[in-house]
Design a protein that fits this description.
alpha/beta, Rossmann fold, Arc Repressor Mutant, subunit A, five-stranded parallel β-sheet, 5 strands
């Protein structure tokens, strides 16, 4: 049986090295180099194609939720099993991670021997196979994705975080999808494309009203110095973020 290729994504190098050394003791695992944040994790997942990703939630540049969001559309075609671990035990974080495709969520601190056992169990239960370079390279064209879309998603995530939008909220994902799909049209016309909320609703199999409410809730939860000041509309916030991407990149 071939070894399970494991990628550890962790910004705390002491924690990462301890976990790396413990898993290296088992002949069942092949440990890849440690990724120090979510942006590096995405590149490693693309280029090294691990079987299992051990993913911390709280990280600089791009957090674990952002990695799961980015990976969501490719997951059905064979991306790794995601085992999320964090000191955050809030139900909304756990629910968000699981809804985005995490196979398991474990709270820090944990027994590294138990985690090693869980990796083998979950990998076997999900019957995840190593995928070939040919399989991986055909995924993006089949979904009509390109480098431009990938870069937009990362930039959207960056400026949404700066704005104060919370990654664990459902509306966060909707906002990012609207930014990605609307960017080119907005740059040409100065407005969001007609029917964009309907497109996002159809993609997620929900009503337009649910999309709008989720986005509104996400925006309303952004902390401001003057809480009595009326928050901008959904579309205004989305346009502001697109303008930041245009101005700074």
């Amino acid at each position: 049986m071939s070894k399970i290729r494991v990628l550890i994504v962790e910004d705390n190098l002491l924690t990462a090295r301890s976990l790396y050394d413990k898993l290296s003791e088992s002949q069942d695992f092949e440990l890849l180099d440690i990724a120090k944040d979510g942006v590096e994790a995405i590149e490693r997942i693309k280029n090294e194609r691990p079987d299992v990703v051990l993913l911390d939630i709280i990280m600089p540049r791009l957090d674990g939720i952002g990695v799961l969001e980015y990976s969501r559309e490719y997951r059905e075609n064979g991306l790794p099993v995601f085992i999320v671990y964090s000191a955050v035990s809030a139900e909304n974080y756990i629910s968000r991670a699981m809804n985005l495709g995490a196979n398991y969520y474990i709270i820090k601190p944990f027994d590294e021997s138990v985690l090693a056992l869980r990796i083998k169990q979950i990998f076997t239960d999900n019957n995840v196979k190593q995928y070939s370079t040919q399989d991986y390279n055909t995924r993006i064209p089949s979904k009509q994705k390109n480098r431009h879309d990938d870069e937009l998603k990362l930039l959207a995530t960056k400026y949404m975080r700066e704005y104060g939008l919370k990654a664990h909220m459902t509306g966060y994902c909707y906002i990012r999808d609207i930014i990605t799909q609307s960017f080119d049209v907005y740059c040409q016309s100065g407005t969001l494309p007609k029917g964009i909320y309907r497109e996002i609703a159809a993609k997620n199999n929900v009503s337009v009203q649910k999309v709008e409410r989720a986005i509104r809730n996400c925006i309303e939860n952004v902390a401001t110095e003057d809480e009595t000041q009326k928050k901008p509309t959904n579309s205004q916030v989305i346009c502001q973020i697109i303008e930041k991407i245009r101005a700074n990149n």
